[in-house]
Design brief:
The complex is a heterodimer of chains A (532) and B (183).
Chain A: H1 9-19, H2 25-37, H3 39-81, H4 92-98, H5 118-139, H6 153-162, H7 166-174, E1 187-199, E2 207-209, E3 214-225, E4 230-243, E5 246-257, E6 265-268, E7 272-276, E8 280-285, E9 292-298, E10 300-305, E11 317-320, E12 324-327, E13 334-335, E14 355-358, E15 360-364, E16 382-386, E17 396-399, E18 405-407, E19 415-418, E20 423-431, E21 438-445, E22 450-454, H8 457-467, H9 493-496, E23 499-502, E24 508-515, E25 518-526
Helix pairs in contact in A: 1-2, 2-3, 3-5, 5-6
Chain B: H1 20-38, H2 42-58, H3 69-87, H4 97-110, H5 114-126, H6 130-141, H7 146-153, H8 157-181
Helix pairs in contact in B: 1-2, 1-3, 1-4, 2-3, 5-8, 7-8
Chain lengths: 532, 183
């Protein structure tokens, strides 16, 4: 085999773009020319890459398909052994599909995409219909009377959606007939991320089935619904995923986005039904009062009050981007009452920032210079920027904070530090857009403990060479560090003083920055060897 | 068209013609790879592969079983790819016949070991770091763009593209080693 190192860097880059579906005609031409150079060898390399690429794709899909077929097999067994809700059908197509085959024909669902060619289509139709009916059966809690042949696959989603209405679900799930037996529930979501998530009863293998009640007691959890929605749950919260496109939020906070899939997502609270008609929104339910608040980050959300049976009461309110609404039982949906900083919106699995909330925006490894200065000027956010990672300074420099606690004055906070172990460096920067005094608060949790905080202008300046990105052009003006650092400023500290709290586990920083121009400080956390 | 007396040795037991389903199973990944050469968009590639499978199933009786099945599929795929490009008003990537033949030969050489290769891939993927597995899942299972993945993993889109290519490269190498050891 030709080793990867034998492949010119230019070709590796071209292949990277090609398999990411971003190859321009020029890139395609580059690949073609390379193939022509040595067709017998390079075509094999290319074929291996393309086959691996395709196999990864297939393997990922097959995993989802396997879950569906495992469910189907369970349901077949249950149907045979108990109620004759679903008649046993020929298993041949099922076995074929279990083997991982993909055929042409009709696709079922976004992720399963199990398809059959015409020649085998009719043979497999029964299994496909069985699958559709089976899923429907699972969604409605094993309600008797569903005929497998009466539910074409393309109608399953529609029916599922109509069943999403709380009033119907309520009736079906709370009034089991004497004949009904426990049935295997459909997989609707998976836990795909989180930070220090603690559940009262953790989902087994991260799999969440329809109607499973869950309580997140600590941390954050990211759920990925099988129809594409991503939901970040913020503890404490009680939830009940209902279908691949909906969940019930009994209390707590969540942020839902369908940005990647563009599909609909519905959140039911005790008194409100929120239908996402766009891409992302946050919802909170007060555990005591039951008050529901929502904030729309993008797209539209239709908020409709519902009674205790889930019946709609009135037309509700349509909220668009940057609008919020609040609802208390017995009133109408009121505009306002929530802000965008209430919800954790970023993935909790980011390797460099575990999460941030409040007036903070993580921008990754982005140098600040004249060309993009305006992008990082804001009266609403502090920007958190990743600088060098996995870097061992091996030189002494001054820092302000190395111990947990609340710091409201930075006078004489300076001590030397020598590090011969790797650290990751971050810059937290407020650069106001207006000439007014701006005060911002926020919280950042890092993946590893904070080693030191460099608060004063001098401390930051003296370490720019070590930690700042090469293209960065950070301001060198006096007073862009944290204040008060001079006794004179104590007079104004209530108005324009800054503060930092480093948590006991050294991983979370709460900050309050007040500035008319720039305030910034550097944070060093324990690093790991930088990845190539 | 007369039926061949001796089916392709790679494809079935003695004296018995392989079924379409069996041949398809053996060749689907290689065909997928070939279609990807022309259509790196997985969704469009899916559509084309589905149509190729449909056409191949319909015309299966015309298949000369003395010749590699993958070659026959590629022939159908070529036409379908060209048609897809025409429908979308885009000019297909034009490959010289030498390049196309080389690629078709390469796929044909890979094809008989498709199942083993898949098993190798599974084992190799299990060795990936959590971070790499996460990126693979976001790209291939959730079909997110590199921009979206970048937001989720906290790096630039360009870094995501490079990371994915490093992973593909590592997997290709690992799968090849697996094939060598299990030959």
């Amino acid at each position: 085999m030709k080793e990867p190192n034998d492949i010119p860097r230019e070709i590796e880059d071209a292949l990277a773009l090609f398999f990411d579906n971003q190859a321009s005609p020029e890139v395609c031409r580059t690949i073609h020319d390379w193939l022509e150079e040595e067709p017998s060898v390079n075509a094999t390399i290319f074929a291996e890459y393309a086959t691996v690429d395709r196999m990864i794709y297939e393997a990922q899909k097959t995993e989802d398909a396997s879950a569906v077929f495992a469910l189907l097999a369970e349901m077949e067994a249950a149907a045979e052994a108990e109620l004759v809700v679903i008649q046993a059908e020929p298993k041949k197509p099922l076995e074929t599909a279990k083997a991982g085959v993909r055929f042409a024909g009709k696709s079922i669902g976004k992720n399963t995409n199990i398809v059959i060619p015409k020649s085998l289509f009719y043979g497999g139709l029964a299994a496909v219909l069985l699958l559709g009916a089976g899923l429907l059966w699972a969604f409605i809690g094993g309600q008797a009377g569903v005929e497998p042949g009466s539910t074409p696959p393309d109608q399953v989603a529609e029916q599922t959606q109509s069943l999403d209405k709380p009033e119907q679900r309520q009736q079906q799930s709370t009034e089991p007939t004497p004949e009904s037996k426990p049935t295997p529930a459909a997989l609707v979501a998976r836990v795909t991320g989180g930070y220090q998530a603690s559940w009262s009863q953790p989902p087994v293998d991260g799999k969440i089935t329809a109607d499973q009640s869950l309580e997140l007691t600590a941390g954050f959890a990211e759920l990925s619904f099988s129809d594409g929605a991503r939901v970040l749950i913020q503890a404490p919260a009680k939830i009940q995923p209902l279908t691949p496109i909906s969940l019930r939020l009994r209390s707590g906070k969540l942020f839902a986005t369908t940005e990647a899939s563009g599909d609909q997502f519905i959140v039911h609270t005790p008194n409100l039904r929120l239908t996402d008609l766009g891409t992302s929104f946050g919802v909170s339910v007060d555990p005591l009062s039951g008050k529901t608040s929502t904030y729309v980050y993008s797209g539209k959300v239709h908020a409709v009050p519902v009674d205790e049976h889930g019946q709609a009461k009135g037309e509700g309110l349509m909220l668009v981007e940057d609008q919020s609404g609040t609802y208390e039982t017995g009133s109408t949906v009121q505009p306002g009452g929530a802000d965008r900083h209430r919800f954790v919106t970023e993935s909790t699995e980011a390797p460099y920032i575990v999460h941030h909330t409040g007036q903070a925006k993580y921008v990754g490894r982005t140098p600040v210079n004249e060309t993009n200065l305006d992008e990082f000027s804001s009266d609403r956010y502090c920007f958190i920027m990743l600088e060098h990672t996995g870097f061992s300074p091996r030189i002494e420099f001054d820092v302000a904070i190395t111990e947990p606690g609340l710091y409201e004055s930075f006078i004489d906070l300076s001590k030397p530090l020598y590090l011969d172990t790797p650290v990751d460096s971050y810059l937290v920067r407020l650069n106001t857009a207006s000439e007014e005094l701006v005060t911002l608060t926020g919280q950042v949790t890092f993946p590893r403990p904070v080693v030191a905080i460099l608060a004063s202008t001098d401390q930051r300046l003296e370490t720019d060479e070590l930690f700042a990105l090469p293209d960065s052009d950070l301001s060198t003006q006096d007073g862009d560090g944290l204040e008060p650092f001079k006794p004179l400023q104590l007079v104004n500290q209530l108005d324009d003083g800054d503060s930092i709290r480093l948590s006991d586990d050294r991983r979370t920083i709460d900050y309050r920055l007040a500035a008319k121009n720039i305030d910034q400080f550097r944070v060093l956390i324990q690093g790991v060897e930088d990845q190539p | 068209m007369s039926k061949p007396l001796n089916p392709h040795p790679n494809q079935s037991g003695p004296g018995k013609s392989p079924s379409f389903a069996k041949l398809w199973l053996q060749n689907q990944h290689a065909l997928g790879g070939f279609v990807c050469l022309h259509v790196p968009d997985h969704h469009l590639a899916d559509d084309i592969i589905q149509e190729v499978a449909e056409l191949a199933a319909e015309r299966f009786e015309q298949y000369d079983q003395t010749r590699p099945f993958i070659g026959w599929l590629i022939g159908i795929a070529r036409n379908r790819i060209a048609q897809a490009y025409r429908e979308k008003g885009r000019r297909p990537i034009v490959y010289s016949s030498e390049v196309l033949d080389s690629i078709a030969n390469a796929y044909t050489a890979l094809q008989p070991t498709d199942d083993d290769r898949l098993e190798g891939l599974r084992q190799c993927m299990a060795k990936l770091s959590d971070r790499h597995r996460r990126v693979i899942e976001l790209r291939y299972a959730r079909q997110l763009t590199s921009e979206h993945i970048a937001k989720q993993v906290g790096c630039s889109p360009r870094a995501v593209i490079s990371m994915l290519q490093r992973v593909r490269s590592a997997l290709r190498e690992c799968v090849s080693q697996y094939m060598e050891t299990n030959r």
